Amino acid sequence: LEKEAAKVEGFEVGVQKPSYYVRLGSLSSKVRTRAYQQALNKVRDAKQKSQETISQLHHTVSLIEYARKNMNSANQKLLDAQEKLYQSWVEWKKNTGQNDDDELHSAEHIESRTLAIARNLTQQLQTTCLTLVSSLQGLPQHVQDRVYSVGSMAGDVYQSFRSASSFQELSDSFLTTSKGQLKKMKESLDDVMDYLVNNTPLNWLVGPFYPQLPGIQHAESNGEGERNSSQKDKQPERTTE
C-alpha cells in the first residue's frame, strides 16, 4: 500500500514522523480495496469502543435513577440500590486497573464514586469521538457531522456530571434526557458505519502511510539483484541444436 500511495502527488507529510494520507480514489483498484478495508476496520474498532462506553454510561444512569427513586426509602430497595452502585464501582475499578483500598459503603462515598464513573466514561467517549473524526477526513460532511454530534452530546452530559456533587443535584429530567441522548449517539454511530459499509467514498483520506528510507530501499534493491543473479547461476545451460 505504501509504495502505491507514494506515487500519488500531493500527499500530506506528518510533522514528527514522516507519513502521508491519500484519497482512496487515487489508488489502483487492487490497492484501493485493501486500503478501504484497513480504514473501515479502524472506524469499526472506534465505533465498537464508543458503543461499549455508551452502554456503560446507560447502565450507570439507570443505576442513578434507581437510587434516586429509592433514596428516601428505609427499606430493602434502598439497600439494593446502594449495593448495585457499589458493585458497579468495584467492576469499574477492576476494568480500569485501579487499586483503591477504600472500601467504605456509605451513601456519600457510593454517590461520589458513581459520579466519578460517569465523568470518566463521558470523557472516554469524547476522546474516542475525536479519534473517530480524524479517521473520517474526506467523507461527506453529513457523515462527519454525525460523529461531531456524538462528541458534542457527550460533552453536554459530562458538564452536568462534572458540576454535580450528589445525586440530588441531578434532576429526573436530566437523567431521562441523558438516556435519550445516549440512544441518539448509538444510532449516529450505526449510521456512519452503515454508510461506509454500503459505499466506497473515493475522497476518503486513508492512511497513514510511511515511506521507506532511501537506505532501506537501496539495500532491498541490492538484495533483489543478488537473488536474481543467484537464480541465473542456478539455471541449467540450454543446449542448441
From TrEMBL:
Subcellular location per UniProt equals: Lipid droplet
Q: Where is this region: Disordered?
A: 215-241
Q: Which domain of life is it from?
A: Eukaryota
Name the InterPro entries for this protein: Perilipin (IPR004279)
This entry carries the following GO cellular component terms, namely: cytosol; lipid droplet
* Protein keywords: Coiled coil, Lipid droplet
Ranges of Basic and acidic residues composition bias in the record: 224-241
Q: Does the keyword Zinc apply?
A: no
Main location per the UniProt record? other
List where this protein forms a coiled coil. 36-84
Any GO BP:
positive regulation of triglyceride storage
Family statement drawn from the similarity comment of this UniProt entry: Belongs to the perilipin family.
**Under what name is this protein listed?**
PLIN2 protein
Question: Source taxonomy lineage?
Answer: Eukaryota, Metazoa, Chordata, Craniata, Vertebrata
